[in-house]
Amino acid sequence: MFRVSHIYVGVLALVLFCLFSCAHGWDYCQEHWCSRPALQHVACNNNGSLGAKCKSGARLIPMSADMQQFIVRQVNLYRNQVASGAFRKWPPAERMATVQWDPELAKLAELAVKQCHLATDNCRNTRRFKHVGQIVGHVIFSANRFSQRQLIGHKIYNWFNQYKKATAGLGLGLRKDITSFRQLIQERATHMGCGVLQQQRHRWQQQFIVCNFARQNVHHEPAYAIGHKAAAGCQTGTNPQFPNLCAVEEPFDVNAVDRYVPKPTLLIKMKYSEDGMESISAKSRPKRA
Ligand SMILES: *[C@@H]1O[C@H](CO)[C@@H](O)[C@H](O)[C@H]1NC(C)=O
């Protein structure tokens, strides 16, 4: 009996170890996940050291299960609100996903936040998510006055607050920056993960936060599809906590390319030379209507 339980614990430990490292053990440099070769993946040749812009004493804030839940809940609250159609400017959302925490997106956000600056990284796509979006922010505050949770909550609130500048069409670009708001309500952002860092800056404390989302916004694509009623298009029902969002089980095609722009067809030519080596050339040509 004793021996069996030892074996059982051993196997369980191996499975758990694999969940955390086997799944993430591939090389981010080798995979061709970034849209242009010049765009380097945030995790490629990154040993996780702090960036040159960081102050001494910069430290990551651990994302406890509690904190993860808090962040996801705040984001879902805002999504649920917009999806309901309560903001009269925006009609109800046909099929908006419930956001869940994803450890890999969080790990990559952590690498980005360790740069201690307010710019997005170049690329952070994963095997599961090919169009990962990112929001970056910071808050400056006097020490010991606010909890980490308050600061993070405040930042997410700020991002959401861009809605005040947004037009009915939710157009990107133009003069007003609403990219963070638009990312928060992207219907296919099924997963998210954040990294948070704190450092001292003169007399002040500074908190950086980077959040990655399973699906980024695409320029020509609406942030969400409009429904006659919120969640009317959900195939698996609605989320009991957030009734204007689909249930967590709802399947979404997070990797689909822009549905609203004609896709060029990809032509692939293969040549076989005498010694068996092959060369491949790919070329895209716009599809004829
Ligand atoms: C990690 O990478 C940085 C920057 O590329 C380098 O300066 C540092 O020496 C590396 N640290 C380790 C422990 O390899």
Automatic annotation (TrEMBL):
<dbReference type="InterPro" id="IPR034763">
    <property type="entry name" value="P14a_insect"/>
</dbReference>
<feature type="signal peptide">
    <location>
        <begin position="1"/>
        <end position="25"/>
    </location>
</feature>
<dbReference type="GO" id="GO:0005576">
    <property type="term" value="C:extracellular region"/>
</dbReference>
<dbReference type="InterPro" id="IPR014044">
    <property type="entry name" value="CAP_dom"/>
</dbReference>
<comment type="similarity">
    <text>Belongs to the CRISP family.</text>
</comment>
<protein>
    <submittedName>
        <fullName>GL10234</fullName>
    </submittedName>
</protein>
<keyword id="KW-0732">Signal</keyword>
<dbReference type="GO" id="GO:0007618">
    <property type="term" value="P:mating"/>
</dbReference>
<dbReference type="InterPro" id="IPR035940">
    <property type="entry name" value="CAP_sf"/>
</dbReference>
<keyword id="KW-0964">Secreted</keyword>
<dbReference type="Pfam" id="PF00188">
    <property type="entry name" value="CAP"/>
</dbReference>
<feature type="domain" description="SCP">
    <location>
        <begin position="66"/>
        <end position="220"/>
    </location>
</feature>
